[in-house]
Amino acid sequence: MKGFATHERRWASDSVPGDKVLSAVSSPESFAVASTDGAEEFVEVTLDVQEDDTIVLRSIEQLPAAIFHLDQDASSESCGSGTSKSPSVRRSSSHKLRQFSHELKAEAMAKARQISQELRAELKRFSWSHGHAGRASADGATTAIDNALAARAARKQRAQLDRTRSGAQKGLRGLRFISTKTANGVDALNEVQSRFDSLARDGYLCRSEFAQCIGMKDSKEFALELFDALSRRQRLKAEKISKEELSEFWSQITNQSFDSRLQIFFDMVDKNEDGRVTEEEVKELIMLSASANKLSRLKEQAEEYAALIMEELDPERLGYIELWQLETLLLQKDTYQNYSQALSYTSQALSQNLAGLRKRSSIRHLSNQVGYFLEENWKRIYALTLWFAAMAALFIWKFIQYRRRSAFHVMGYCLPTAKGAAETLKLNMALVLLPVCRNTITWLRSTRLSRIVPFDDNINFHKTIAAAIVVGVILHAGNHLSCDFPRLISSSEPEYHENLSDDFGETKPSYGKLIQGVEGVTGIIMVVSMTVAFTLATRWFRRSLVKLPRPLDRLTGFNAFWYSHHLFVVVYALLIVHGQCLYFIHKWYHKTTWMYLSIPLLLYMGERTLRFLRSGYYSVRLLKVAIYPGNVLALQISKPPGFRYKSGQYMFVQCPAVSPLEWHPFSITSAPGDDYLSIHIRQLGDWTRELKRVFSEACEPPVAGKSGLLRADENTRKSLPKLLIDGPYGAPAQDYMKYDVLLLVGLGIGATPFISILKDLLNNIVKIEEQESAISDYVPPTDVHIDLATILKATQRPKWTLKTTNAYFYWVTREQGSFDWFKGVMNEVAELDQRVVNY
């Protein structure tokens, strides 16, 4: 039979010790079983009978009668004709038989299990002729095996009953690395086929090119295992496939069902196709998953995790697990030892008790949501309301003022609209500087004004004002260029002399003359400069999300954003000139542009001057440099005298070797009580990339016992680059002492401010405990003369108490290598923990 011949080749490669095998069944036996409807069903069973009187059940597969006879006919015809089919025809028919067998496998397993047990009993009775004592011991072993198999069968039945659709969806997320590496749909198939055409040779795709063909170049190892698994499914032993076979592979890969994904994953590990996964294969499974998800650390612990999985999934100690057990593991069910049964009961009770609370009206739910929103954002709403009110008042004031001018009869509502927008522009061009005056903002955070002003949103407010400036420029410049000037030019001579001659002269100007005037030239230059600066400041350009061809790619990245923002030096200079050369205002004290800008400009220039002076005053030296996986650069520098900061604050850093002008902010990861400053920098842009390169050249591989890929310190032979610092500056996290319970949530490198908070929190706890211990250990002197001041000083309580009682820290990172640099920091925190703060 054709199907049997295929399996004979398959089992011939199984590794069974030859010295222990009494008779190896290389050609499977087939048994006909009468079904309930009178038809015949055929089951293919493969057994290994060994010398120690044990039988290994290798495989059970059901073959329908129709296919059985079809295979017999096909075999006889093939033998009679003496011709062989082409490889593609054999592959296609074998795949169809395999697919049909898989569909009937689930419902045939129950009958097949019963048949295999009867067969095993018959074979053992036939071969057990070693005496009564031997039979007694064998009966005991058989009973133990049967009990183990029965226990596993019972667990399998419970797992099948517990399987739900929601659980399957959860398990599908556990296998999503199969889908995240490939795309779905007709377009994706066309793309794969086009790659096949470019990579194929003589109409066949080699196994080594399969990863590139399906778009998995970054996970070639995974793709090759996937190729082998799909090839074993279709009984293909060739190292290349045709285009039709590739399409069949692709349809199986992109099948979104959980069962299909699970079967693929199981086949990738079950390389000998015995339907079982041993501990060694579980280890390969873990390493395969780690490779696909780029988890290098998981590979190192694959053996340990494999042992834990086998201990959990194989309590009967049979030495293998089956597909349904792997399914239960991915579905995250507690059907093995019911560890979470008590928690399930608690959750059910809570759900029943809270059922009444869920039945709230939509109006009450909406009111609660509004209340929560107002409670959380009342500062922002308050500040934005004042800002909008100020802009509206200025716009209306100027609008009414120019509505009453004689020029309104010629230019219409375009003139008051443009002038109203100009007045809001004056306000916003002044306000936009205040949120970036960081020293001022840091000082204001410590005042009572912080209770009503959201200083934590200074950068967001800066961006919001910038958006309002864009709207104001469009209204002001647009109305002048497209409405005011054309209506002035098209006005009649009597209208012009009656309403506009006092402002524009006796001779009516042309459109070109209006543009060439001081107002027109300065206005156009400002609009162009602001357009460039605003465009390059958007997230798409600043984060290099826009991919431009060379040399236009230099317009993206932080450098382009930083340098383009210096165009505002020109903008503010021209704005003052623009505000002094007005057509409709002639008295200097009515020209208010300089009044709006004077204080913010002086404050901002003072901040920049302070940064320049302070960077020279803060002389620092590098103490330690370490480069960790995940492109993280850790710098530890000396703490300048007088540099006082709070946990959660940040400072600006400049490296002249990278750029003599650029300053970049980084959170301080050391605690205020430490005698050094530390920062952790992750490579995200062009400046950080160059910074890492500069320090990498000065670093060396670490010695034994030191972490990091590269390290350097003061004793390094190579000279370290110079660093300048400026700060500290305030941040929202610095107010953590106001709360009794802290919930710290960090994503990637965003966890850096919380490192300083945890260290400072525990430093303060140790300090308070030392003070209390000193007070309790105080022994009054035996001298008769006791100084009252000395007693009060020795017995007084600490001047402040720590309000925070608990801190919960959650950190999510994409790279497992990030734990390398974080591990050392958290070890320091753990050493200080006195079980007062939980983390």
UniProtKB/TrEMBL annotation:
Region (Disordered) location: 74-97
List where the protein spans the membrane. 381-400, 520-541, 561-585, 741-758
Q: Ligase: present as a keyword of the record?
A: no
SUPFAM superfamilies, per database record? EF-hand, Ferredoxin reductase-like, C-terminal NADP-linked domain, Riboflavin synthase domain-like
Q: Which Pfam families match?
A: FAD_binding_8 (PF08022), Ferric_reduct (PF01794), NAD_binding_6 (PF08030), NADPH_Ox (PF08414)
Q: Composition bias, kind Low complexity: at what positions?
A: 75-91
Q: Give the primary localization class.
A: membrane
Name the keywords, alphabetized: Calcium, FAD, Flavoprotein, Membrane, Metal-binding, NADP, Oxidoreductase, Peroxidase, Transmembrane, Transmembrane helix
Query: In Gene Ontology terms, what is one molecular function of this protein?
Result: peroxidase activity
Cellular component annotations (GO), alphabetically ordered: plasma membrane
- Membrane topology qualifier: Multi-pass membrane protein
Domain named FAD-binding FR-type: residues: 615-735
Residue ranges of every copy of the EF-hand domain listed in the record: 257-292
PROSITE patterns, per database record: EF_HAND_1, EF_HAND_2, FAD_FR
Where is it localised? Membrane
Question: Does Metal-binding appear among the keywords?
Answer: yes
Superkingdom as given in the UniProt entry: Eukaryota
Family named by the database record: Belongs to the RBOH (TC 5.B.1.3) family.
Q: What is this protein called?
A: Respiratory burst oxidase like protein A
Q: Which gene encodes it?
A: RBOHA
